Automatic annotation (TrEMBL):
Entry keyword set: Amino-acid biosynthesis, Metal-binding, Methionine biosynthesis, NAD, NADP, Oxidoreductase, Threonine biosynthesis
Name of the protein: Homoserine dehydrogenase
Catalytic activity from the UniProt record: L-homoserine + NADP(+) = L-aspartate 4-semialdehyde + NADPH + H(+)
Swiss-Prot/TrEMBL cofactor(s): a metal cation
Alphabetized InterPro entries for the sequence: ACT-like_dom_sf, ACT_dom, Asp/hSer_DH_NAD-bd, HDH, HDH_cat, HDH_CS, NAD(P)-bd_dom_sf
E.C. numbers: 1.1.1.3
Binding-site residues, L-homoserine: E190
Binding site for NADP(+): L9, G10, F11, G12, T13, I14, G15, A16
GO biological process: methionine biosynthetic process; threonine biosynthetic process
Positions bound to NADPH: K105
Pathway recorded for this protein: Amino-acid biosynthesis; L-methionine biosynthesis via de novo pathway; L-homoserine from L-aspartate: step 3/3; Amino-acid biosynthesis; L-threonine biosynthesis; L-threonine from L-aspartate: step 3/5
Keyword Amino-acid biosynthesis: yes
């Protein structure tokens, strides 16, 4: 029986999960492929720490180049993470004619075009299902099952840490900092959670989704990114009163030759399916012109779910090799020459409804002044929660607006913050009522 040799870079949590798949599911993979997948080499700087899996003698090495240059290895799995040395290693694997499977969303968001161009020139595949949504097969759905559709929009809850924190804040009324500490203690958040809670991890994934859905190149630095660290229990309480939940949402839209690409806390109606995605789970909602709305939901991270996606890519490459195909499906779902350069719409031009929260002195005329400024900018008020009389203490005033551009909202809030009755900088959250 034909053997396909695989090399693995990175023997961390996900690497250990990949090895478990090789060991536990070798028979089912062989039956599905009609060939044997063999893990020939595993490279990591630390090959002595117990990862809970046993590796055959001679498989482990501290020399990544041994994996990258071995002429017998057909597929290299990159699970190092980050930009370097992952970029250098992936390009070296391609240079030596090896197919690549990676879960590295940061690498693809920043250096994807360079890597995919090198792979195309060499005639090898680069696959990365695990980079977005962990075990959720969203990228293969876009490239394969739904590839006859023009996608209008894509929405995603793509970071389990943020979703876990917001779920706890919503269900328990807890504050951000206390839930974050608990998430770190339970292993749901990193010691340095910045990439997660400030939205960077989600933006890496959105960059890939936008490129694949809309067939466009995207500069990661053009994505607007806001995290959840400023969300308070008060915001969550008011969201509930208006019939919304707050989620860190990745939003991609295409309209009139431009693309929206943004990550930020967003209020979505409680009766929307995405609002029910809780804890560490992820979900992606796609809207195609023929298929309509489709939502994919599942474990967005973790050893086993991510390893499942990685090995799915390895098997897809193996099938192509066995059938004598090379790069049967374009990596980004579009023929490279047909990928466009659609401009990203500036945030000031985005149109949305808004939740506005002010901290004001409870005096007569305050509401009228704020309403007047909003009216001067053409911003309509959909609903309002006014403070009770509390003897001039500072109290929250909450307004839900009709649709307006971000430019008008920003300019109006700048004027409102100058009022002597406004005690803290105003706070706003965008609202997403249309996911079709």
């Amino acid at each position: 029986m034909k053997e396909i040799n695989v090399g693995l870079l990175g023997f961390g949590t996900i690497g250990a999960g990949v090895i478990r798949v090789f060991q536990n599911n070798a028979e089912v993979m062989e039956r599905r492929l009609g060939a044997r997948l063999k893990l020939k080499s595993v490279a990591d700087l630390d090959i002595t720490t117990d990862r809970g899996v046993t590796v055959e003698e001679g498989v482990l090495t501290t020399d990544a180049m041994q994996v990258l240059t071995d002429p017998d290895i057909d597929v290299v799995i990159e699970l190092i993470g980050g930009y370097e040395p992952a970029r250098t290693f992936v390009l070296k694997a391609i240079e030596h004619g090896k197919h690549v499977v990676t879960a590295n969303k940061a690498l693809l968001a920043k250096h994807g075009e360079e890597i995919l161009s090198a792979a195309a020139a060499k005639g090898v595949d680069v696959m990365f299902e695990a980079s977005v949504g962990g075990g959720i097969p969203v990228l293969s759905a876009i490239k394969e099952n739904l590839c006859a559709n023009n996608f209008r929009c894509v929405f995603g809850i793509l970071n389990g840490t943020c979703n876990y924190i917001l779920t706890r804040m919503t269900n328990e009324g807890a504050d951000f900092s206390s839930v974050l500490k608990d998430a770190q203690a339970k292993g749901y958040a990193e010691a340095d959670p910045t990439f997660d809670v400030e939205g960077v991890d989600t933006a890496h994934k959105l960059a890939i989704l936008v490129s694949m859905c809309f067939g466009t190149r995207i500069d990661f630095d053009d994505i607007t990114i806001e995290g959840i660290s400023n969300i308070t229990p008060l915001d969550i309480q008011f969201a509930k009163e208006f019939g919304y939940k707050i989620k860190l949402l990745a939003i991609g839209k295409r309209e009139n030759g431009t693309v929206e690409a943004r990550v930020h806390p967003t209020m979505i109606p409680v009766n929307y399916p995405l609002a029910d995605v809780e804890g560490v789970f992820n979900a992606v909602r796609l809207v195609g012109d023929f298929v309509g709305p489709v939502m994919l939901y599942g474990q967005g991270a973790g050893m086993d779910a991510t390893a499942s996606a990685v090995m799915g890519d390895v098997m897809a490459i193996a099938r192509d090799q066995l059938a004598g195909h090379q790069a049967r499906t374009p990596a980004m779902g579009y023929i490279p020459d047909c990928i466009a350069d659609l401009p990203i719409k500036p945030m000031r031009d985005i149109v949305s409804q808004y939740y506005l929260r002010f901290t004001v002195l409870d005096k007569p005329g305050v509401v009228a002044k704020i309403s007047g400024i909003l009216g001067n900018y053409g911003i309509g008020i959909a609903s309002m929660i006014q403070p009770d009389r509390k003897k001039s203490e500072a109290v929250p005033l909450v307004i839900m607006t009709h649709e307006a551009t971000e430019a008008l909202i920003s300019d109006a809030l700048a004027d409102i913050d100058k009022l002597d009755t406004v005690r803290e900088p105003s706070h706003f959250i965008r609202i997403e009522n249309d996911m079709e």
